[in-house]
Structures are given as C-alpha cells and as structure tokens.
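Q: Okay, next protein. This is Putative acyl-CoA dehydrogenase YdbM from Amantichitinum ursilacus. I've checked the sequence twice, so it should be correct. Can you predict the 3D structure?
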Amino acid sequence: MTTTITPNVTNPSAVRVELDSPAWDELLSQITRQLAQTAAQHDRDGSFPHANFDYLQQHGLLALTVPKALGGYEASLSQTAAVIHAVARGEPSTALVLVMQYLFQLSIARNENWPAHLRERVAAEAVKDGALINALRVEPELGTPARGGLPGTIARRTPEGWRISGTKIYSTGIPRLTWLAVWARSDDADPLVGAWLVHRDTPGITVVEDWDHLGMRASGSHRVVFDDVLVPLEHAVEVAPASQPSKPDGAFYSWISVLLSTLYDGVAHAARDWFVQWAHGRVPANLGAPLSSLPRFQEGLGEVEALLFANRAVLDAAALGRTRPADQGLIKYTVTGNAIAAVQKIAELTGNPGLSRHNPLERHLRDVLCSRIHTPQNDAILTTAGKAAFAAAAAQPRSH
C-alpha cells in the first residue's frame, strides 16, 4: 500500500541544531540547567511545567521522533535517550511526558492501521505547535491493563460516530495534551479493544485535578472522565477483536525500556551531581576539611559511580541493539534498581541534610522510587525471566 506524504511542516520559531554536534551537546547541558531552575517549585505545589514544554518546542524537540519527511528530527534511540536523560536531570516529570510523546510519535509513524491523514495531522501538529499525545489506559476499577482484563471504558457505535464513556486515572500530561489515545472496548458481541483517538477539546471530557503523589508530582497525572464523547468512526485507530488480540512490536518495546530506564538514571545522576557539590562545600568545624576528603565519603561515591557505570553500559548496549528482545524487562529492572540504590546510598551518606526539603536530594529520592510503578513491574519481570530460564534449560539435552 502506498501512502501520500505531505510536504515538510516546519516550526518557523524553532532554533534547531544538528544532532550529535558540539552545539547539540551544549543544548542538552543547557536544557538540564534551564529545567532545574523551577523543578523544586513545581514539585512543591504540584503544578504542571508548561514553560518547560514551551522551551523544548523552541528547539523543535517535541517532534524529535517525528519522521524527517513530516518536519521532525527522526532521531535514533540513542539520540532520543540523550534528550530524555538531559531533561530528567533537570525536571523528571517533564521527561516522563516527553517519553510518552516520543514513543507515540514513533509508533504512529510505523503503524499503517492509522488512517494516513490522521498520522500526518498528529505529526504535523507536533512539529508546528508542539502538540502532545499520550495513552489513557489505567482505570479505577481495573487498574493497569498489563495485568489483564477488558477496559470498563465503552465505545458505542452510532450512525454519527463512536460515543465513548468511562473514567481514566494516571493520565500523565493531561494539562498539556492535545491528543488522547483512549483505551476502550466497543459494544460489539466480540468487542474491539484498543485505542480510540480523541482530541482534547472534544465536548464531554472532564479533568478532575486529583494528582497528589509522593513523587513525579509535576506530571499532571489527573483523573479524566469521558461522558458520551463523540469521535469519528475512523478514530478507532488501533483496535482488534478481543478474541484476536494484536501482537506486540518487539522493537518498539526496546524503546520503552530504554527511555523509561534512562529517565530514572537521569534522576540518579542529578542526585549524584548535588552530592558531589555538597560534599565539596561542607566543611565541619571539627574536621577543618571538606567531607569529600574523608575515605568514607569517597568510598560511598565510588559505590554510586559503579552503579551508574553499570547503567551506562546496559543502556548504551540496549540503545545500539546489542541486547536480546527478551531482556527488555531486565534492562528496566537493572537500571531502575541501580538508580534507586544510588540515590539511597547518597541519602545514607548525607543524613539529615539529604532529607531536608531545603535540598533537592529528598525530591530525587521520591522521584526515583516512582520507577517501580511503571509497567512491567519487578515481579512480572523476574517471573518472566525465571520462566524463560527454566524453559531454556528444559529444552537442552540432559547429560548423563
């Protein structure tokens, strides 16, 4: 099937730089510094960082994974992970919304089930206006769909289009989203299950601002209620009969594991950077020298460096396709576990100052702990890995 590609859509106000150039490296450092300036305030009051997305749009970065033919950067996984790392070191809630934007834009570009004009529209709006998209999947009664079950959100087929009703929670980025990929099921005997594309301004959508969590407080992950929301029939963009579910894209899951893991590795690096400065500047009167001169602190930082080195090795290999598709869960388990251990070690070394809200470390600790809640969770990762190892062993001929 051939698809007509529209001409490049440009954002005339964007200041774009060449990927992997010295200017690109400087931009990433600048992003971290810029976003870090307001991170504490957004965490404290739970406000959504709209200005961060305005800033990223100035450099065309909200269209990083949009194809070049549609005006985007069409960045590789390594290049995309570098942006996520830089953003997460500054303000991780922004990075979480950005991960979802990048994953969706990548998925849309590869998915021919979408009508071509919808693919091109969502991409073009990301380039020109910085329009964001994310999936709304989790529900109050069902919880995460990764554990199985059908959504309670119903899409009713009517002559004028689909009528969608239901409630979603943990709707990350909803204060800024333009497009919502709503996980629902149709009212057919063998229901269609999957994503319906809904524009944020469609009548019948209510956002209940109830997000008040321990970490990632600026992600705007509020409850969203859909009351008979009307969308065109062609907006059932990624659905399949419940009796014949679609198969997951293994290559796409490598992007998910790398980008989410990179995000929380970035949080750990932010904690490490703060600790180094703090230990250099902290000179107790009874010591007469910085804490950084003490073997205990040097050894402790060495432990942190070892954890982050392991993360870098794993993430670099995964981004270059040097890990097995079956190991995507283990990548997340290893990297996020190391990130948590690194920040916890720093908190142990710093004592009370590290847990004071006057310092950013306690925020980094709260944020990095949120890595455990993303799908797949640790129990599912380890059970899958264990089953695979037993199965592989059973398939080998026994030696006598």
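A: Here is a summary of the prediction. The radius of gyration is 22 Å. The CA atoms of residues 62 and 130 lie 6 Å apart.
Q: Noted. On to the next one.
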